[in-house]
Specification:
16 strands, globular, Tumour Suppressor Smad4, 2 domains, 9 helices, alpha+beta, 6-stranded antiparallel sheet
Length: 333
């Protein structure tokens, strides 16, 4: 049951403070869920329905509401440190990315990463949709999660090098790393979706705003023993389908799918955007693809990048990306 324990009160009423430390792996029941809710505009009513349904199902859980997506990383780290064996994120791709970074960078009392789950409540929910979780049917999602079916999945690792940075430590991802215009598309799409709310209008506005973005970058990278130096519009490195750019990638084969887009003419760009939004990206002309366990980007040419739809404001000169096979347990349908 969802008990009003001291721990639960601490989580609910003091979301901006640390969770109390436990006495080790036995401090939290292995069946008790830790939920982190990352609010999105217009989703508050659905979250109340989720809580009510969890209580109806008799689930044992504690929950905390994050102040923003970035706060999810801190909360996921605290839940990991406190001994929760299962952490479920109610939010979108960016919240899930912050959660995996909090988990990966925090030791657990049991010595094992907690199982990670997701209740999709974001704007894209690309990783959740890969597994068949629907944002429109929270009851089905909760039912599936409570069955505790677990599959170990890969975790991607990116190491951007930022000159004079105090820390060039790794950043983790579940879905993809996007470099160049692809990062701009996702950033614009998230911004316009949060502003407009309507999917079609947000796509149209994103396409319009993209006209004012830089379209071409000279990127050097090496993978599989081969070296490439090309002018490109976008580079996607996916452990999963990467918002349609790496549609053949799966997060359990220990491999990364890589797609590179050559700079198109304006009419080709509009066609490419349409194929991206409709999930047929690889049929566009000018796409080159690889599959590898490791890629070293030797020069980014000031291109921006994102992780799982989370835009990173780092000005990296170069970056290495690899994969950690079957690194974390994930709740699947």
């Amino acid at each position: 049951m969802h008990k009003k324990s001291t721990l639960k009160k601490t989580i609910m009423e003091q979301a901006t403070h640390d969770l109390p430390e436990t006495t080790g792996a036995k401090g939290i029941s292995k069946d008790r869920l830790g939920l982190i809710y990352s609010p999105k505009p217009g989703k508050g009513k659905r979250w109340k329905h989720v809580l009510h349904y969890l209580e109806q199902r008799g689930a044992a859980f504690d929950y905390v509401k994050s102040e923003n997506s970035a706060d999810v990383e801190r909360l996921a780290a605290m839940m990991t440190r406190s001994g929760y064996r299962t952490i479920i994120i109610a939010g979108g791709d960016a919240a899930l990315n912050y959660a995996i970074n909090g988990i990966m960078n925090t030791p657990s009392p049991s010595g094992e990463h907690p199982a990670l789950g997701v209740i999709p409540m974001g704007f894209a929910n690309d990783f959740a949709r890969f597994w068949g979780f629907s944002a429109s049917d929270y009851r089905h999602t909760v039912d599936q999660l409570l069955q505790r079916r677990v599959r170990r999945i890969d975790v991607g690792r990116a190491r951007p090098y930022v000159p004079d940075a105090a820390d060039n430590g790794p950043l983790y991802f579940l879905n993809c790393v996007n470099v160049g215009v692809a990062a701009s598309i996702i950033n614009l799409r998230h911004w316009t979706r949060s502003f407009l709310g309507l999917r079609t209008l947000s796509y149209l506005l994103s396409a319009f705003l993209l006209i004012f973005q830089r379209m071409s970058f000279h990127i050097e990278f090496a993978t599989g023993g081969d070296h490439f130096s090309r002018r490109t519009m976008a580079l996607c490195i996916g452990s999963a389908r990467g918002y349609g750019q790496t549609p053949s990638a799966v997060p359990y084969n220990g491999q990364l799918d890589i797609s590179l887009v050559s700079p198109p003419q304006f009419t080709q760009l509009l066609h490419g955007l349409w194929l991206l939004f409709t999930g047929r990206f690889l049929s566009h002309k000018g796409i080159a693809v690889w599959r590898s366990k490791h890629i070293e980007i030797l020069s980014l040419d000031h291109a921006g990048f994102s992780l799982d739809g989370r835009f990173c404001p780092l000005h990296a000169e170069r970056m290495t990306v690899d994969i950690l096979p079957e690194e974390i347990p994930f709740l699947i349908p």
